[in-house]
Amino acid sequence: MDDWEIVAPMGDSRSGRLSESHEEHKNEDDTTGIFASLLIPGRGDPMKDQAILCSRKTGKIIYVGLSSRIPPKYYNVHLEKIPVVMPGMWECHAHFMGASPNKPIDFVNLALTSPPEAGARNARVIKDTLYAGFTSAVELGGYATELQRVIEEGSILGPTLYGSGGAISMTAGHGDIFELPYGCSRQKLSVNAPGTDGGAAVVVQADGVDECRKAVRLNLRRGAKCIKVLTSGGVTSRDDRPEYQQLSDEELKVIVEEAGRMGMICAAHAEGKAGIMAAIRAGFKVIEHGSYADDEVYKEMKKNDVMLVATITPLESILDNKDKYPPAMYRKTAELAKIHMAAYRNAVKAGIRCALGSDLFGGPGSVLSPGMNGNEVHLAVKTGGMTPLQAIEAATANGPLTLGPQAPQSGQIKEGYDADLLGLDKNPLDDIEMMRKPKNVKYIWKQGKLVKAPGLDPWDALDI
Ligand SMILES: [Zn+2]
């Protein structure tokens, strides 16, 4: 494709050549150059006419600013002209569990899915997640710890994954499988299982202080970057109730202590108030869902610097697709949805720091398939009442904060940060709904490398 006319974007003849081509120009020094007519930095106000240089060697941003100020050694770098550039987004509540699109999504089916089958499906849905504009994903129960190693080696295309390993659940808790005999449930969803007996790696069942401590260590052994704990019931399993606390204060405290020793923070699946308050008391730094949170909860969250990931996408999807879910799950969700949505809006009003997570856990092409993650950005505005700029900050700059000490420099377009960027044709601040559709995310650079562009075959974007 033709290069742009060699004109100085800021009236400066020194600036790099502009190109409209999506072909990656192989600059000798492995530098990717972009010229953004509008740059949304992740945190802070948008800026016009900015140049961004990234190193494909280090995967970091090396320059952001006026093209007229580009350091002389980069004068020859091609600049790809893109109307709007923003940071790659952070999916902060993912599940890559390998669910089948043709079976009801429940723990029994997940437990009976073999890891190779799950892995093959995951290869598809992590690529879909990346292509929706999510260059990083925090996974809270699933196979991300294993998948990340495969992504890193370059065999498959996906976001950078930060997994928790299996979510820690008490027996008869949100992660138990009530339909199976006790021993079977414990083994099939246990983190002991992967690679040994073919069970799903979604949940670690643990009771008592010693087992809770061990559950953290087992996740660490898999490569966890954070710890997920189910501190209240939820809507996906048969008998549990969102309003009651799950796991005792003593058990929760030992989990936080053990995770903290290894530099990890804890995220709580907490829908009812009792489970939320227990998590905050124990020192958790992220509340997932927060369905029944009230002013007292928000006060404690603020005091203890606890973040919220509200996960509205599945609520909307379940309500819109009654026939595709088990009746008990549908009934519970319908009860919960109104309250949960109002709580989200109140949390935003109360100034609680939010990151965005879509909690998508379905099979490829299903109603809850990862790949529709951008809907949560739209819902942050529609349901949560954020401004579009706040929603983008929640989807980008706030994402890494959910990892505490494990947070990488990411989610903002700043020198030294991960060179994960999105190129858009339109300004999402004018039309946030556009983020729902993966096709509106035209270009994606992950660690400085172009991985999505019109006409680019995803296989060609792989490193090996
Ligand atoms: Zn979840």
Please give a structural write-up.
Residues 11-30 are annotated as: Disordered. This is Amidohydrolase-related domain-containing protein. Residues 84-451 form the Amidohydrolase-related domain. The structure is a single chain. The protein is α/β, with parallel strands linked by helices and 464 residues long. It contains twelve helices and 18 strands. It has helices at 107-111, 115-131, 144-152, 182-188, 208-222, 249-261, 273-282, 295-303, 313-320, 327-349, 375-382, 388-395, and strands at residues 18-19, 31-39, 47-55, 61-65, 79-87, 89-94, 134-139, 160-163, 167-169, 203-205, 227-230, 266-270, 286-289, 307-309, 354-355, 421-424, 441-446, 449-452. The strands form four sheets. Strands 1, 2, 3, 4, 5, 16, 17 and 18 form an eight-stranded mixed β-sheet that branches. Strands 11-12-13-14-15 form a five-stranded parallel β-sheet. Helix 5 (208-222) packs parallel to helix 6 (249-261), helix 6 (249-261) crosses helix 7 and helix 11 crosses helix 12. The chain is globular. Bound molecules: zinc ion.
